[in-house]
């Protein structure tokens, strides 16, 4: 376990509060999410206004991420971004403690330790299988879980997922394609869980748009099998749009065989690859993802603080902590976290744009559509800045 308190008091640039101050204002329709104010001092033995709250007067929040093993760099990036959010907001009623879900005993041991040490909210874990291990322990202790997973299957019953889901990305990109006149689609995905859910979402979205799926191909994630699937789709006539429901790397392998099969489109996974346009057939392809503008600002400050660039998922740690700070005024020290306040139709604003949790525990997000260019990407349909329904 790592106590983030000492890290949170590290020096920052003079403009460090800019992003947090802006985001704490929340959605325009939600005046309650203005910057939090400290509670009035007690009438007796009042501390100095700038003095940190004693540890016994803080609510404890556990950040459950891998700090060792294959995903250690991602986990560390998320944890450090969470610490930055606490620093940026100057919130003194929250104490973050970081636990390694890849250490001895895994995620279950990390969760047991976090509960034993008095944490009343979990941020994380990262992977869906770890959420499944942690959720029963958290539920028994009435501790909500804000997981960083994109596995919709683990959401609900006190578990809320912050991750970017393929369903929402595919809904957005199909809606955009239909608005551009697309009617006939093809799609390809891996045989894994992500691919299966992506294809189901694809079929549903196309049907809702009034279109038709002419061909679907699945593949094992090897170059030979990806190219085989792409060639099979390339032989299908009359296709307007082809979905590649996989990473940017896989899309770059498939694209040369799909040049004559309609415009390519992808999922939120493509946002992790800044060099999509290095493969010429990828240029002009479109995909849906969370907005990047505020994340780019976070990258600059993160790099200056930690002397390295964050992983894209670091924004989940920042936004989860920012959300906790927004609700801190409703969380009396020693009480349970005010879980009911997480479900708010007006939603919240974060580094990744606006989001809100439904009763199913899945974060609904406003996504932008980007087109791949030779030098990067360009936004062709911006994300909404508020929820209207």
Textual characterization of the structure:
With 389 residues, the protein is α/β, with parallel strands linked by helices. The protein has 11 helices and 16 strands. Strands 8-7-9-10-11-15-16 form a 7-stranded mixed beta sheet, with helices on both faces. Strands 1-3-2-4-5-6 form a 6-stranded mixed beta sheet, sandwiched between helices. The protein has a 3-stranded antiparallel beta sheet with strand order 12-13-14. The protein starts with a strand and ends in an 8-residue tail after the last strand. The model is unreliable at 5-17 and 27-49 (pLDDT under 50).
Write a concise keyword list for the protein shown above.
389 residues, alpha/beta, Rossmann fold, 2 domains, 7-stranded mixed β-sheet, 16 strands, elongated
CATH architecture of the largest domain: 3-Layer(aba) Sandwich
- What is the radius of gyration computed over CA atoms, rounded to a whole number of angstroms? 22 Å
How are the strands ordered across the major sheet? 8-7-9-10-11-15-16
Distance between the termini: 42 Å
How would you spell out the order of helices and strands? EHHEHEHEHEEHEHEHEHEEHHEEEEE
Instruction: Work out the count of structural domains.
Output: 2
**What form results from the Cα inertia axes?**
elongated
Main β-sheet: number of strands, strand sense, barrel status? 7 strands, mixed
Count of DSSP strands: 16
Chain-averaged pLDDT: 88
Q: Return residue spans where pLDDT drops below 50 for at least 5 consecutive residues.
A: 5-17, 27-49
């Amino acid at each position: 376990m790592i106590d983030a308190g000492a890290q949170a008091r590290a020096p920052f640039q003079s403009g460090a509060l800019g992003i947090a101050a802006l985001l704490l204002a929340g959605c325009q329709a939600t005046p309650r999410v203005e910057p939090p104010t400290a509670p009035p001092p007690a009438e007796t033995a009042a501390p100095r206004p700038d003095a940190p709250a004693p540890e016994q007067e803080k609510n404890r929040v556990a950040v459950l991420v891998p700090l060792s093993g294959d995903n250690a760099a991602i986990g560390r990036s998320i944890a450090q971004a969470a610490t930055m959010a606490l620093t940026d907001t100057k919130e003194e009623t929250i104490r973050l403690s970081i636990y390694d879900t890849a250490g001895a005993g895994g995620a279950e041991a990390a969760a047991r330790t976090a509960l034993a040490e008095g944490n009343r909210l979990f941020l994380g874990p990262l992977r869906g299988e770890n959420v499944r291990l942690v959720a029963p322990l958290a539920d028994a202790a009435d501790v909500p879980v804000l997981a960083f997973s994109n596995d919709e299957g683990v959401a609900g019953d006190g578990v809320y997922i912050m991750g970017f889901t393929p369903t929402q990305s595919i809904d957005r990109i199909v809606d955009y394609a239909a608005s551009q006149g697309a009617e006939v689609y093809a799609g390809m995905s891996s045989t894994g869980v992500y691919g299966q859910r992506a294809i189901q979402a694809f079929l549903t979205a196309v049907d809702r748009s009034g279109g038709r799926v002419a061909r679907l191909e699945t593949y094992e994630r090897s170059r030979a099998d990806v190219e085989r699937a792409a060639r099979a789709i390339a032989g299908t006539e009359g296709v307007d749009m082809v979905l590649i429901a996989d990473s940017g790397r896989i899309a770059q392998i498939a694209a040369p065989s799909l040049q004559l099969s309609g415009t390519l489109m992808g999922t939120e996974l493509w946002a992790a690859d800044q060099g999509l346009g290095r493969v010429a057939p990828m240029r002009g392809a479109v995909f849906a993802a969370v907005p990047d503008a505020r994340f780019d600002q976070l990258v600059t400050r993160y790099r200056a603080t930690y002397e390295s660039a964050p992983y894209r998922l670091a924004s989940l740690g920042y936004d989860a902590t920012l959300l906790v700070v927004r609700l801190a005024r409703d969380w009396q020290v020693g009480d349970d976290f005010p879980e009911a306040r997480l479900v708010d139709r007006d939603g919240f604003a974060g580094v990744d744009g606006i989001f809100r949790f439904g009763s199913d525990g899945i974060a609904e997000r406003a996504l932008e559509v980007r087109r791949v260019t030779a030098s990067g990407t360009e936004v062709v349909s911006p994300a909404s800045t508020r929820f209207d329904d």
